[in-house]
Amino acid sequence: MSKPVTHAFFVGRATAEAIVDRLEDTLTDFLSAVGKFDAERREDFRNFTEAVMSKTVRVETTAAATYGTGYSSADLQELIDNLRAEVAHLKSELQQYREQNGISQ
Known about the structure:
With 105 residues, the protein is mainly α. The chain has two domains: 1-69; 70-105. 90% of the residues lie in helices and 0% in strands. It has two helices and no strands. It has helices spanning 3-67, 73-101.
């Protein structure tokens, strides 16, 4: 074997090893970034969930203080029925408005 061929072999081998090292580093960095992103999203979701639950407790407490907890099942059903009637009435008025003004849905 001649010396230039041996030299070319070792240069190629060193180049391949350097490329593999770079790919390993790049893959490691990428996987680290993905893991960090996932952890941040999970933390954001946890914080969001806690904020929603905290607000729910505040609203429930305020509603209980404002309206009391003395509603019977019949009172709640009447309230629901009244709200449904209001929604139906508003839908009807909205439909009439759309028809009068030529607005399609």
